[in-house]
Amino acid sequence: MKEKNESMLMNRRQFLATTVAGSAMLAGGVMGFSAHAAEAPLFELPILPYPEDALDPYISARTLSFHYGKHHRAYVDKLNELVKGTALSGRPLSEIIKTTAGDGKRVAIFNNAAQTWNHSFFWSCMKPKGGGAPSGELAAKIVGAFGSFENFKKEFTEAAVTQFGSGWAWLVGDKGSLKVVKTDNAVTPVAYDQTPLLTIDVWEHAYYLDYQNRRKDFIAAFMDHLVNWEFVAENLAKA
Ligand code: FE
């Protein structure tokens, strides 16, 4: 068990080291390339930072198993298939996202690259026994930007609730300030030089098995019991 924990920690560190600036490629054991002689490396599904049942009852093992094991895996596999043999093969994930953003001819590559990145980031935004309010510099920055933590929570929740159809709500760093934004479908702040600090996936696949159409209850559970504020603070430190 100790070995397993250390291995999960290491993967989390690798993930933090490579993704949080929003500009770095996802590399190492979490979202890295596997080496194949004479072939461009492939993206790999990252290892979850916790067991699949660790977020229960707020996100069930069944939901996480489908969301991570089926949906996230499908984005990674499709991305590998789509970039194979193209000029994007072997390029860092963030570069693929930025290069294909807004390119009508490469929508599928953008969607799968962005969803690969977004989901890897989302898993680390949560932890068992998370949620509540942040502390330290992050808390001060949030109060500075939104007036109070409660105001931030309200704005973030509102963005997540009102995202029409599939998408994401985010806390981002943008030119030195903090903002709440929401994005459609696969769209990610990474494409627009904003630094993601926190996100919630509000595609139905993220919550429907546990909450059916009660998206608001899923968001409340995320805020109150799941947010990994240490991860958010680390992202802020690198913004
Ligand atoms: Fe998702």
Kindly report how far apart the N and C termini lie. 34 Å
CATH superfamily of the largest domain: Fe,Mn superoxide dismutase (SOD) domain
Radius of gyration: 17 Å
Arrangement of strands in the largest sheet = 4-3-5
Overview of this protein structure:
- It is a single chain.
- The chain has ten helices and five strands.
- It is α+β, with helices and mostly antiparallel strands and 239 residues long.
- It folds into two domains: 114 residues, Orthogonal Bundle (Helix Hairpins), CATH 1.10.287.990; 102 residues, minor pseudopilin epsh fold (3-Layer(bab) Sandwich).
- Bound molecules: fe (iii) ion (FE).
Topology:
Elements: H1 2-19, H2 28-31, E1 33-36, E2 39-43, H3 61-83, H4 93-100, H5 107-124, H6 136-146, H7 149-162, E3 167-174, E4 177-184, E5 195-201, H8 208-211, H9 215-226, H10 229-237
Antiparallel strand pairs: 1-2, 3-4, 3-5
Helix pairs in contact: 3-5, 4-5, 7-9
Residues 67, 71, 119, 201, 203, 205-206 line the site of fe (iii) ion (FE).
Give a quick summary of the entry:
The protein has 239 residues and is an alpha+beta fold.
